Amino acid sequence: MLALSNVPGKRGELRLRLGLKEGRTIIKDAYNRVPLKIAKPFYLEPETGEIFLYQMNPTGGMVQGDEYYQEVTLEDGARAYFTTQSAAKIYRMSDSYARQVNVFKVGEGALLEYFPDPVIPFARSRFVGETEIFLHRGATVFLAEIVTPGRVKRDEVFQYEYYHSKTKVYWEGELVLWDNWILTPGSKDIRGLGIYEGYTHYGSLFIFSEQVSQGLADKLHGLFAEADELVGESGNGQGILASASLTLKNGVAVRLLGYRASDLEKAVTTCWDLARRELVGLQKPRIRKY
Questions:
Q1: DSSP for residue 138
Q2: Which of 29, 98, 156, 224 is the most exposed, having the fewest neighbouring CB atoms within 10 Å of its CB?
Q3: Which of 145, 136, 143 is nearest to 73 (CA)?
Q4: pLDDT of 108-143, one tens digit each?
Q5: What is the bridge-based pairing of β-strands 111-115 and 79-84?
Q6: Which pLDDT score is estimated for 166?
Q7: One GO cellular component from the entry (predicted)?
């Protein structure tokens, strides 16, 4: 596999600095380089002043050699919901790979809610994703990820070559989470015991706050006791497999396996709503996408 720096591709970049002005979170500084940009921000919770941001990519997906970098800094007390306009498509590649780096810096008492749409790795695609989060006292973070097996309706199930996702979370400079997983369907049956357990879609939700407790983890875990009721009836009559447990410090990790992205999105949203009520004191807002 060729080094990324030796392969032609887009070098997209997005940098945002968010801060407070008269009780409302605003964009204090912004820089972008195509193909990354954001739509005009709006506010769904006037009472909190939280800003809602949509990252946009007019190219429609990533090809070999593409490298995206986005950095979002929330100053003390800022609040932001950050998402994407649509699913992230990783296209077929003859060599090399595509890479995206996310860096989030969350100040004291700030709130970050990051819910990108699912990732769709096409057949023969290769992708590396790296996320680093730096948290300060009083910060709260919700971080979600959903990965599909490919273009299911074209029978491209687990035909991608390589999917690597790394997440590091630092609390006041201390590394409190290092999540590192690599999927290589071509060389190993990932649908087997101990990996996907026969399921096809993967999801995760990481929650960080000083208010996180074993009680919250137990409540989240309890949601999946009746998984079919939580997500509704799947196409094959089965629901999801999921669990929630505490991380090293101030965090809960929720991991999910299912058969449809919509099932996992609903389950993740339900978990988010429960945790948001407990940690932030507010139910989830109604997100407008279409």
A1: T
A2: 29
A3: 136
A4: 999 999 999 999 999 999 999 999 999 999 999 999
A5: parallel
A6: 97
A7: cytoplasm
